[in-house]
Predict the structure of Glycosyltransferase.
Amino acid sequence: MKIAYILNTYPQPSHSFIRREIRALEDDGHDVLRFAMRASDLPLTDPQDRAEKDKTEYVLAAGPRALLGASWRSLRRDAGDLWGAVKIAWQMGGVSDVGRLRHLIYLAEAAFVAERCREEAVTHAHAHFGTNAATVALLAARIGGPKFSFTVHGPEEFDAPRALSLGQKMAAADFTVAISQFGRSQLCRWAAPDDWGRIHVVHCGIEPAKFDTPAPLPKGPRRLVAIGRLVEQKGQLALVQAMAEVQEDIHLTLIGDGEMRSAIEALIAHRSLKERVTLTGWVDETRIMQELETAHALVMPSFAEGLPMVVMEAMAAARPVIATYIAGTPELVQDGKTGWLVPAGDVHALAEAMDAFARAPLSKLTRMGTAGRARVLQRHDVAAETARLAAHMQG
């Protein structure tokens, strides 16, 4: 197949799962074009992300004249189709948080994407996230672009399903992808029952070859690593508060960056944790692998999630996981077998789980890591999951 991936901001440091999915499709013989509305303004520390940027066509960078020209040619091609798309954009904009003018801009972007897809003989378009990328994919299909599908990750889409017109998008899509059974259940809330059969679970995947020989758990004081954007939903403030309650000798490394960094740094200083908590900022995939190797476990204190890739990567590296009992996480992390699950937002329960982790003998942590590795390799092999996605596209 010739597939167009439609994305909002790409690549981004936290979206390596999209890059892996595209690469797996290409490894399977499919031709994938990347259309992103804009480039990220975050530094791309990973050379793989920089390579993806070079392969991506940026729609807004083409300029207003190109977008208006594509819209004019769409009008001449089929005025009825364009008028139908205008009505859809107007209606969606009326219920959204960004308004109708923004949706008319999405329509101009869609005209550009639809024209490029026709020029490249694209057979299917796939968008990631149920936000504006899925809107562009829908509108492009309405004005002569390819049939489309989209992946919903959460939690953002589940926070505003009406404002994002999720039900309308699912009705128009060839199919919709959820990354967990929990995610599928949430989509079924907003889809017509007749559309449930076109909502499929396709997991995000890891590349098993990169975790071929996991490093043994290190000796010495226990080390935890947390990886993710420093934003409210990831719960790092609660994690720092829990670190202040922990009784055992634990060091925590926080990998990532974001709007909450200054608040997290202030709390670390206030609770006198500078010797026990390290912030690294964004790092590349190689550094993440190194941090997992030197850690005894991953901690994921999120308040809201889809199904975190870093949990999969930690389990593939044979590391136990301490996580919150939310969204799709319990479908992967098994309490007492592959790690610890605690209620989201419960600082005391999180601190107790971290102490239990620190007191557990290395042999128990190794057994947990081994069980987690077997589970994630069986459920989240990117080649197998992407083959399922391609089958849905072909079907």
In short: The longest helix spans residues 99-119. The chain has two domains: 2-205+381-394, 209-379.
